[in-house]
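INFO batch 0412 | record 1 of 1 | parsing
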Amino acid sequence: MAVGVLSLQGSFNEHMAALRRLGVTGVEVRKPAQLESVDALIIPGGESTTMAKLAHYHNFFPSLREFMSSGKPVWGTCAGLIFLANEATGQKQGGQELIGGLNCTVHRNFFGTQIESFETELTVPKLAEQEGGPDRCRGVFIRAPAILKAGPDVEVLADYTIPLDKLRSVASDAEAQEAIVDSDGKVIVAVRQGNILGTAFHPELTSDVRWHSYFLKMRMQRGETNRQCLALSDPNLGYPLGTRPDLPIFEHR
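INFO prediction complete | emitting C-alpha cells
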C-alpha cells in the first residue's frame, strides 16, 4: 500500500516516519502526476496560506479534487484540515483556495498565534473502539484551527471543551467566540466524512500511531482487502532492535 504525503511544506517528514513505523510505504508527493501512484493521501500541517500558494503554483488543486472524488482516503491535519473544508473563516486578507469536499466550516488559527500552542488530553472513544488502547489521546495543537460547524453527514471523532471564563483568551475573534457559546463551550477537532479524515491537531508529533492506523484502514473499508494495516501499540515496532525514530516525538506519561 503506497500512501502519499503532500510534501510542499509543513510536517510531512513526521507523517512519513509514522508510516514507516507501521510498515507502510510513504511517498513524498511534490507533483500532481505522483497522485496517480498512491492509494491514499495525507495533507500535513504547516502554514496554510503558503501551502495554498505552492499548490496553486504547481497546479495541484484540480488533481487533488479529482483524487478526493475517486473515493480514495484523504487525511488533513491542521493546515490540511483547512484545505479540505468547504468553507474557511478567519483567513488572511484575500483568503486562500481550498480543495473542499469536507462538509465543515473551519476557523483558521482558531486557538491563536504560535505562542498560544498547547497540548491536551482528548477523549476518543471511537478511535479506541477500532484501534484498541486507551480512550484518550494526546492532542498537540500548534497555531491550530477548529471546526465551528459540521454537516449531518460528518461524524465527530473528538471535540475540545473550552471553559467559558477563558473564552476570550483562547478564541481569536468575535465570530469564533460566538460559535463556542452556541455549542456549550465545545469545538470539534476531529471528524470523518466517508473517505475524508480531518484533525485539527498533530498526531504525527506523538508516539501514538493509532490515528495513522485508523486512516490506513479506511482504504480497506472500501472493499480493498488485499492488504492488512494493523494498529501497533509498541512505538519501537517497525524499527531495528534497539533503535528509535530519528524525529522528535512527544510522549505523554
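INFO post-check: Residues 223-253 have pLDDT under 50 and may be disordered.
INFO record closed
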